[in-house]
Design goal:
With 262 residues, the chain is of the alpha/beta class. The protein has a single domain, classed as Purple Acid Phosphatase, chain A, domain 2. Helix content is 27%, strand content 16%. The protein has helices at residues 25-34, 57-61, 75-83, 87-94, 101-104, 108-119, 146-154, 164-170, 173-176, 216-219; strands at residues 4-7, 15-18, 43-46, 69-71, 124-129, 132-137, 192-195, 204-206, 209-211, 224-227. The strands form 2 sheets. The protein has a 6-stranded mixed β-sheet with strand order 1-5-6-7-9-8. It has a 4-stranded mixed β-sheet with strand order 4-3-2-10, with no helix packed on it. Strand 5 (124-129) and strand 6 (132-137) form a beta hairpin. The two termini are 24 Å apart.
């Protein structure tokens, strides 16, 4: 697994990004049909958490490797990777609303196959398309410089609590930071970064970070956005933090899926 993947394949059609799918395969297919998605030419990027909570988890796992689909790793994919070998992590995965019971009901061989697929997913993905450079990460970018962020991830090291990989998969620091704080600013050396993980009533922009998890597994609202590059001028129209009528997580879902020690 390359921690950071630079996607260099030609994109002959349109480029889309989708929020956390969480086992809602049929909902994803319906949203793509609404947009006339061309499976031969278009490309869909997932910000991770393909699985858990919804009912069509193996169908969502099957998206990995499709020519029209790319994903970064989410914390729920990480749950499977760690829970496969660690009983205590597995217990966390199946508890409360984490929704991982389906995985441990599979035989060991199928679990191993799924873990191998999840291990192949990058933590961060970068795509240049029609004059713009897009980044995709599941939860959080700690640095205010995309190149520094990639360097931290590529430096390797453990996936322990608050490590670069751990924060990219689990942290909510940037999305929860108040606009008056100066710790997090627009991320340099990237045009836009798309993230999920924190359930919001609608997509929200903070500087050049767009958070797009709208809780598909319980709201049936799955966010799919077409990224048009600079061809159409203005950036994607998403409410900014100070325009949102609801704070992150205020729908009661903000902390679900967290590690017990996070």
């Amino acid at each position: 697994m390359s921690t950071v993947e630079i996607y260099n394949e030609p994109i002959t059609g349109r480029l889309f990004v989708v929020g956390d799918i969480h086992g809602c395969y049929s909902l994803l297919m319906a949203e793509l049909a609404k947009r006339g998605f061309d499976f031969n030419n278009d490309l869909l990027i997932s910000v991770g958490d393909l699985i858990d909570r919804g009912l069509q988890n193996q169908e969502c796992v099957g998206l990995i490797g499709k020519s029209w689909f790319k994903a970064v790793r989410g914390n729920h994919e990480q749950f499977c990777i760690e829970g496969f070998l660690d009983y205590n992590i597995a217990r966390q995965h199946v508890m409360s609303n984490n929704g991982g019971a389906w995985f441990y009901q599979l035989n060991n061989h199928i679990q191993q196959q799924i873990v191998s697929k999840f291990q192949s997913l990058p933590i961060a993905l970068e795509i240049s398309f029609k004059g713009k450079k897009y980044g995709f990460v599941h939860a959080h970018v700690e640095q205010n410089d995309w190149e520094e962020f990639k360097a931290e991830l590529n430096a390797g090291g453990s996936e322990s609590y608050r490590s670069p990989v751990d924060m990219a998969l689990w942290s909510r620091d940037r999305v929860y930071a108040h606009s008056s704080e100066n710790q997090y600013q627009a991320i340099k050396n990237i045009d836009e970064v798309y993230l999920g993980h924190t359930v919001l009533p609608r997509p929200m922009r903070k500087h050049n970070c767009i958070f797009i998890d709208t809780g598909a597994f319980h709201t049936t609202l799955l966010t799919v956005i077409e990224l048009k590059g600079e061809q159409h001028g203005a950036p994607v129209s998403v409410p900014r933090e100070d325009q949102s009528d609801t704070c992150p997580g205020s729908n009661g879902m903000g902390n679900q899926g967290e590690k017990t020690n996070a």
